[in-house]
Specification:
By secondary structure, the protein is α/β, with parallel strands linked by helices. It has 4 domains: 132 residues, Rossmann fold; 131 residues, Rossmann fold (3-Layer(aba) Sandwich), CATH 3.40.50; 115 residues, Rossmann fold; 131 residues, Rossmann fold (3-Layer(aba) Sandwich). 43% of the residues lie in helices and 17% in strands. The strands form 4 sheets. It has a 6-stranded parallel β-sheet, with helices on both faces. It has a 6-stranded mixed β-sheet with strand order 7-6-8-9-10-12, sandwiched between helices. The chain has a 6-stranded parallel β-sheet with strand order 14-13-15-16-17-23, with helices on both faces. Helix 12 links the parallel strand 13 and strand 14. Helix 10 runs antiparallel to helix 20. It starts with a helix and ends in a 6-residue tail after the last helix.
Length: 631
């Protein structure tokens, strides 16, 4: 353990001398434009915005539209663009089509755009019709509408007639809630008498609901898609003395809607998590400004379903929106201890990851306790984690587990000791922390390794053609990431007609990988392609090929962009290097842990950090070269 501490101290000293992979500027100014105010939903969202700003040390300029309408929000955004000092924009657009031009103008003016609660286009910022926003952070509104009207179906039974009060067409979220409700009605045999649009006015919603109930006394259920419609519908039912006779599901947990629940006017309130939306909007904007390229294009923020049975449960009641404002809690300080246990060190991949960890920690003002295994093996990492648990002062753990099964017990112990666990680069179980075999970790932040292996061996197929024979050098079975890279390569080989001569395991040793590769190439002179699944295997394979004078005769795709692998690329020994984004993994892991400490429950259980594919043609492009790992 003494030797491990010395290695950690030397590593931290080295990190302090070398420029970080991520840039920082304490003077960021982030504009926040909610959908409308005053509105308890957006007031609650602003509490998350200002808490994140306090934690991250950024400045907020908030401008509020008087009505939920583009004629009010567009001039606000135009004025913010004209200021010339806005670094990022977090906003809830009022119309999914009409809000596009002004947000496009912001983007073209160099202002990154993130949308919260509502979206533009079809909301698919990765592959949809509008892709310039960094992220859409908000509820799955189709699912929310489906939940609400499924609950009505459970209470009312098949054939019951219901009424839907919505705001106005074109608002992305309420369009989707209506859609979800209608899908549930169709699936469960409810009859939808009509859908009305109330222009986001509680008074209009009340008048419409009163008229519909009078004209249709056989309506026994109702769904309101947002807070203003919910308040109007609730008032109409209360005035008509129909509480209990009409089952009502309302969207949004404003205080009036919660009172309707307590009074028996409604039976179900769907609470979104606007504070989470605000916090994550500012956190992701700041991460991007600090150089993180892995901000998720979509973050779903989930729901709390509030009934009379759980409304006073503190774990549920905290999601009730408030119309009052309060000062954010003071930023965390060095008394908050985040433990970071990489897979192994020294290793350029994990040294680069450390830079992301320390960049985020510096921005947040928290303390990092780093402990490094000497080898990528649970016999080295488990005692480190056990010692960290025993200290009793660790607030969170970010780690790259060495084995997807053998690392589970010690990380479970950390979780049971009250230490939130988050894994980076590698995972435990099957990596599905939402619905898989192991769900206690907060998140798995790392590459899509099956896809990475598929990219690499597809590139070999492009160069070599059908029938070519290739060799795969891997580390050892049981490491989640390299297992998946091998899987992806074999899938590409099968799909593209490559013959895999063999797969060897090098125990994460460059020397063993070099010896194995030399022997395989000597015994199989018809091998014309090779894939190495990680940095140590890549270095060994590259050395073997160079020593045999086979550069150019054997096409090679390597995983991990260490400086030795990049030199192999420059020397013509390899043709393709797959660079992961370890600094992003480290930064996002720290941000996610602090968000969790602030009560945010919506950090994704899986954050994919992507790749840069480095070739001789782009290796000197600064936008690509920044992903090369350094020791």
């Amino acid at each position: 353990m003494k030797r491990l501490l010395i290695i950690s101290a030397l590593l931290l000293f080295a990190l302090s001398l070398v420029p970080g992979a991520l840039a920082q500027d304490d003077g960021y100014t982030i504009a926040f434009v909610p959908g409308v105010n005053p509105d308890p939903f957006y007031i609650t969202m602003s509490t998350g915005v200002y808490q994140a700003a306090a934690d991250l040390g950024v400045n907020i300029i908030q401008q509020d539209p008087e009505e939920f309408d583009v004629t009010f929000s567009v001039p606000i955004v135009e004025a913010l663009i004209a200021r010339g000092d806005i670094d990022a924009l977090v906003t809830a657009p009022n119309d999914k089509e009409q809000s596009i031009p002004v947000l496009q103008n912001a983007h073209e003016a160099g202002i990154p755009v993130l949308t919260v609660d509502t979206f533009i286009g079809d909301g698919d910022y990765a592959n949809g019709e509008v892709t310039f926003p960094l992220s859409y952070i908000g509820s799955d509104n189709v699912r929310g509408g489906f939940i609400a009207c499924s609950a009505l179906a459970d209470k009312l039974g098949e054939g019951a007639k219901i009424y839907v009060t919505n705001t106005k067409p074109g608002i992305s979220t309420t369009d989707q809630r209506e859609q979800g409700c209608l899908e549930a009605a169709d699936a469960r045999g409810l009859e939808v008498a009509r859908v009305d649009y109330n222009e986001n006015s509680a008074d209009i919603a009340q008048a419409q609901t009163a008229a519909v109930l009078q004209a249709n006394p056989d309506i026994v259920g109702m769904f309101a898609t947002n807070l203003f419609g919910a308040v109007g519908a609730g008032n109409a039912i209360q005035n008509a003395g129909l509480q209990g006779a009409v089952e009502v599901a309302l969207f949004d947990a404003g205080e009036e809607n919660i009172q309707f629940l307590r009074d028996g006017v409604v039976s179900l309130v769907i609470a979104q998590k606007p504070s989470d939306m605000g916090y994550l909007g500012v956190a992701m904007a700041t991460a991007y400004l600090d150089g993180v390229g892995s901000v998720p294009a979509r973050i779903g923020t989930g729901y709390a379903v509030i009934t009379i049975d759980n409304v006073d449960d503190p774990d549920v009641a905290r999601f009730i929106y408030t119309s009052g404002t309060s000062d954010p809690a003071p930023a965390l300080d060095e008394s908050y201890n985040l433990a970071f246990v990489p897979g192994v060190n020294p290793d350029p991949f994990y040294i680069t990851m450390s830079r992301g960890v320390y960049a985020a920690a510096e921005r947040l003002g928290i303390n990092v306790i780093q402990q490094d295994p000497e080898e990528f093996d649970v016999t080295f990492s488990v005692p480190i984690v056990e010692a960290l648990i025993a200290r009793g002062d660790i607030d969170a753990l970010v780690t790259a587990p060495n084995d997807k099964e053998q690392s589970i017990p010690v990380l479970q112990n950390a979780h049971e000791a009250g230490i939130p666990v988050l894994t980076v680069d590698t995972f435990i179980g099957d990596g599905d922390y939402a619905d898989g075999e192991v769900t206690f970790p907060l998140s798995y932040i790392g590459s899509d390794n099956v896809f990475g292996g598929f990219i690499a061996c597809s590139a070999l197929a492009d160069q070599l053609g059908e029938g070519a024979k290739i060799y795969v050098t891997n580390t050892k079975p049981g490491i989640s990431t390299t297992d998946q890279r091998e899987q992806g390569c074999l899938e590409a080989a099968d799909a593209r007609g490559l013959e895999v001569a063999r797969v060897d395991y090098n125990e994460n040793s460059a020397d063993i990988a070099q010896a194995q590769t030399a022997a395989v190439l000597q015994a199989n002179p018809d091998i014309v392609g090779m894939f190495a699944t990680n940095l140590f295997g890549a270095v060994g394979a590259g050395n073997a090929i160079q020593n045999a004078g086979l550069q150019g005769a054997v096409e090679v795709a390597l995983f991990d962009a260490g400086e030795e692998n990049i030199q192999f690329l420059r020397d013509g020994v390899v043709s393709l290097v797959i660079a992961q984004k370890p600094a992003d993994m480290g930064y996002m892991g720290v941000i996610a842990q602090v968000a969790n400490a602030r009560g945010v429950t919506s950090m994704p259980a899986r954050v994919g950090t992507g790749y840069a594919v480095i070739t001789i043609d782009n290796v000197d492009d600064p936008d690509v070269a920044r992903f090369i790992y350094t020791g």
